[in-house]
């Protein structure tokens, strides 16, 4: 059973962030921290979709390029992408070149714009916050889906979103700080 590990700096962290580097930086400064605004939510949604089947460090290392090519996740600008834009992105070696994921980013931007006439992306995602957030002590106790992530996935699909499966939505909820994802004993637990 893997609980928080003590880094060489004497700080207890979730095991995946034990060593110095981009993963630790993300863990220590961003993961599980509340954000606000449509662009911040669309960015996290897009990054989680791009991460599917890949390591999170790959996405973090490509994040600045993804921000650039997706206009800092301005939904209106991404929603206006056409086939030529998608072809341009498929040729950009700085990002994950997966046609389905690139297409999903455009579809999701269009769905995000459509949500403005209702509650908006941020309010919709927040409405699925768990009433009883998890408090895992070990990695074995950590879930990869929840009733809330399954319901969010279903609702986003109903609203026209793509690449929003229950596991991806659970990771999104963790990343956005919808609930505290850190292990009990991690120095970040209850600080975000």
From TrEMBL:
<feature type="region of interest" description="Disordered">
    <location>
        <begin position="132"/>
        <end position="153"/>
    </location>
</feature>
<dbReference type="GO" id="GO:0008725">
    <property type="term" value="F:DNA-3-methyladenine glycosylase activity"/>
</dbReference>
<dbReference type="InterPro" id="IPR005019">
    <property type="entry name" value="Adenine_glyco"/>
</dbReference>
<feature type="binding site">
    <location>
        <position position="27"/>
    </location>
    <ligand>
        <name>Zn(2+)</name>
    </ligand>
</feature>
<protein>
    <submittedName>
        <fullName>DNA-3-methyladenine glycosylase I</fullName>
    </submittedName>
</protein>
<dbReference type="InterPro" id="IPR011257">
    <property type="entry name" value="DNA_glycosylase"/>
</dbReference>
<dbReference type="InterPro" id="IPR052891">
    <property type="entry name" value="DNA-3mA_glycosylase"/>
</dbReference>
<keyword id="KW-0479">Metal-binding</keyword>
<dbReference type="GO" id="GO:0006284">
    <property type="term" value="P:base-excision repair"/>
</dbReference>
<feature type="binding site">
    <location>
        <position position="14"/>
    </location>
    <ligand>
        <name>Zn(2+)</name>
    </ligand>
</feature>
<feature type="binding site">
    <location>
        <position position="182"/>
    </location>
    <ligand>
        <name>Zn(2+)</name>
    </ligand>
</feature>
<feature type="binding site">
    <location>
        <position position="186"/>
    </location>
    <ligand>
        <name>Zn(2+)</name>
    </ligand>
</feature>
<keyword id="KW-0862">Zinc</keyword>
<dbReference type="Pfam" id="PF03352">
    <property type="entry name" value="Adenine_glyco"/>
</dbReference>
<dbReference type="GO" id="GO:0046872">
    <property type="term" value="F:metal ion binding"/>
</dbReference>
